[in-house]
Amino acid sequence: MKEIIIEIDFNSDEAIYMQLRNQIIMGIAVAEIQEGDSLPSVRKLSEKIGVNMHTVNKAYSVLKQEGFIKLDRRKGAVIAVSTDKLEALADMKKQLRLILARGCCRNITRNEVHELVDEIFQEYQAE
Amino acid sequence: MKEIIIEIDFNSDEAIYMQLRNQIIMGIAVAEIQEGDSLPSVRKLSEKIGVNMHTVNKAYSVLKQEGFIKLDRRKGAVIAVSTDKLEALADMKKQLRLILARGCCRNITRNEVHELVDEIFQEYQAE
DNA sequence: GCATCTGTTATATGATTGGTGTAACAAATA
DNA sequence: TATTTGTTACACCAATCATATAACAGATGC
């Protein structure tokens, strides 16, 4: 089991539990953590990164609600990604609409977005 | 000058001023509002959609800060999109990282993302 | 059995944010 | 002159974020 590297920016305007959630999702994407792996317990992780237990618990609850982990009393928080692709595609499209609108206003082209997508996918699909 | 259509969902967990900001950005992207057009005054718009003046003012301030409008005492809030493409590309990449990570976990492929991007660009680039 | 660790829940507190309300000011407009 | 504009300054209430302390039941290790 690998060690998960979490970096919290306490000066960020982004909530700590959201930073946690996002970094864990990206950790799954780059296969730093894999299906079936366990995350540290809320108490261990909270102590490690210097935040309150409830803050970590909230991040885990969101991840559970969004279908990235399952909470097991025996194994703790286990990576278990739901595979509802249709819902995931719908979610992604909704989020892309705003981001692409912002880019479109700045004259970012369709091809430039495609290039960005390819660059990021290269980071993620590296096994 | 066209009438801008704003729909606020008061039951949404998204802040009203953010809904406003996002809808105005998307309005610019679909060319519903164009460079040089004026947005309604903060008081007019607040009355129209039934929110407080300060809420609209906050949305306009964010749009100004992000380089989508300029506030002029004569013409009000005028669409004036900054054209710092490099910064826009960097911003977009940062935001795409999280969204694509979420999709990558759900086994969404590179090509599926490209298709989504093309679909959305078709909505936006319609002149 | 016993101590420990787990997720979970409950309650409380302080700081920050979101939204509203009222009011006032200077500049621009009609 | 009267009105409208963006802007600013207060104040208020509700919700959220993060913290703190505490307790509970189930699982684990000795």
List keywords for this structure.
homodimer; 127 residues; mainly alpha; three-stranded antiparallel β-sheet; 57% helix; DNA-binding
Structure description:
Two copies of one chain form a homodimer. By secondary structure, chain A is mostly helical. Chain A has five helices and three strands; from the N terminus they run H-E-H-H-E-E-H-H. Chain A has helices at 16-29, 42-49, 53-65, 85-105, 110-125; strands at residues 38-39, 69-72, 76-79. In chain A, a hairpin with a 3-residue loop joins strand 2 and strand 3 (76-79). In chain A, helix 1 (16-29) packs across helix 3 (53-65) and helix 2 crosses helix 3 (53-65). The longest helix of chain A is centred in the last third of the chain and has 21 residues, at 85-105. Chain A is globular and about 50 Å long. At the A-B interface, helix 1, helix 4 and helix 5 of A face helix 1, helix 4 and helix 5 of B. The structure holds a DNA duplex (30 and 30 nucleotides).
How would you concisely characterize the structure shown here?
Two copies of one chain form a homodimer. Chain A has 127 residues and is mainly alpha-helical.
Blueprint (SSEs and pairs):
The structure is a homodimer of 127-residue chains.
Chain A: H1 16-29, E1 38-39, H2 42-49, H3 53-65, E2 69-72, E3 76-79, H4 85-105, H5 110-125
Antiparallel strand pairs in A: 1-3, 2-3
The structure holds a DNA duplex (30 and 30 nucleotides).
